[in-house]
Amino acid sequence: MRATVGIQMWGRRFAVAAGAAALAVAGVGVADATPAKTITNYVALGDSYAAGTAILPMSGKGECGTSAINYPSLVAKKLRIKNFTDVTCGGAKVADFTGRQGFPSPAPPQFAALRKNTELVTVGIGGNDIHLVELTASCINPAATATSRQCAPRPGGRDKVGATINAFGPKYDKVIAGVRERSPKARILLVGYPYGIRPGGCPGRQPMGGPDATYIQDKISQLNRVMKVRAEANGAEYVDIETPTKKHEACSGSQSQMVGVLPTDTQSLTPLHPNAAGQRTMAATVLKTLEN
Asked: Is the distance from CB of 214 to CB of 199 less than 8 angstroms?
């Protein structure tokens, strides 16, 4: 998300323009859940999908665009966690776990929040490292049709984004090791990305050709598969967000839990990101995982 100022503004700085509509959902809860073990210390790490960038009300972390009703906050509230630290940040990459992050005023590295007594760590990362927002921006086509192709590789062509995702996989190993080094007793959950847009898209409602929509979702799914494999290989847990959000992707109209390629409302303005309802689904899924 840092390739250009325009991408930065698009990816994580919509809080200024976000309307008051999201305030209406602030009090909506998530499903009841009882964790297998009482949790007192919880740290949330991640990017804009975890931060709930631009969903009102905001948490006060202006440099990161973090929502007060993102899934980590909903999980912490439901479980009445005493010590909850949310350092998720719009635009974050793996490098921001150990380096300063945020725009325009840098925030401390996310790993700085980890403690020896941290019992739960949720991690949502990877989208910015594989340039998912830039990919989505390159696919926008106001004249899109069911067959038009703007960003997807031609049949038989090289899948550069797919290669980038595969090469990124080992970085999840380093993330898990970095968490475990700082918080050896923590339960580590790698939280996947939600289902973005249906195969073939919905040209006419979302400005993206059919093959391009299919390609974007294929890459989201590929990233989730890589995340799952690396989590399991390193003794962490993978939380599947794709499955429970599949029927609520960007083409689902009033049932959508994803903001469209181009935002059409004032509730959530970060393109192809979960809206407030999506954050509630993510929270419910994390809570369900914690029951085991």
From this structure: yes
Determine the 3-state secondary structure of 124 from DSSP.
Answer: strand
* Separation between Cα atoms, residue 62 and residue 167, nearest integer Å: 32
In this structure, the dihedral spanned by the alpha carbons of residues 84, 89, 94 and 99, taken in order and rounded to 10 degrees, is -90
Return the amino acid letter for 220.
Answer: I
One-letter amino acid identity for 156?
A: G
Cβ atoms of 186 and 180 closer than 8 Å: yes
Bond into 108 cis (ω within 30): no
* Tokens 């085991």 -> residue: 292
- Positive or negative CA dihedral for 13, 73, 106, 3? negative
Question: Of the candidates 161, 79, 165, which has an alpha carbon nearest to the alpha carbon of residue 122?
Answer: 79
State the virtual CA torsion across 282, 283, 289, 292 in degrees, nearest 10.
-170
Q: Give the Å distances, CA to CA, from 150 to 34, 125, 208, 212, 262.
A: 47, 26, 8, 7, 16
Place of tokens 């290989």: 233
Do you know the residue count of the chain?
292
Sequential pLDDT tens for the chain (292 residues): 333 333 333 333 333 333 333 333 333 455 566 666 789 999 999 999 999 998 988 887 667 889 999 999 999 999 999 999 999 999 999 999 999 876 666 789 999 999 999 999 999 999 999 999 899 999 999 999 999 999 999 888 899 999 999 999 999 999 999 999 999 999 999 999 999 999 999 998 999 999 999 999 999 999 999 999 999 999 999 999 999 999 999 999 888 899 888 776 656 668 889 999 999 999 999 999 999 8
- What letter does residue 193 receive in the DSSP assignment? P
